[in-house]
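[Backbone geometry]
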Amino acid sequence: MKTIFKVFLLVLVTSCISVKAAINSDDDTNISDHNAAEAGIRLVMEQQERDWNNHDLEGFMEGYWKSSELKFYGPNGLTLGWNNTLERYKKVYPTKAESGTLNFVINDISNIERDSYWVMGEYYLKRDVGDADGVFIIIFKKIDGAWKIVADMSC
């Protein structure tokens, strides 16, 4: 009976160690995936700042999903589609005086589901025509291996 108990205990301990190792391995993978996603998203937003600050609105829009399903929600309501969003930017920011210098402050990047993250933050525009500041929530999704904004709410 003692032998059976020792074998049972050995199997139980070994199983617990295996399960814990698997859980820790998944946690490490999730942390690694999150860190890679966050780094990729930050790179997109850093490039957007550079493009905006050069008044390159088309370049800035490369961070967005080039789809009619893109959603942008701002003070003037909902804009659907990549082309419509670009046209909106061109109308509101026709010159460097209106677009100014952009600075993002990222306050949170959180996973929503596999390959989808939200980014919460602040934007600061220093402009000749008057500064403009606000907040945003952006939804990023990895599409064809690249991080793209699929929804943006800025005010």
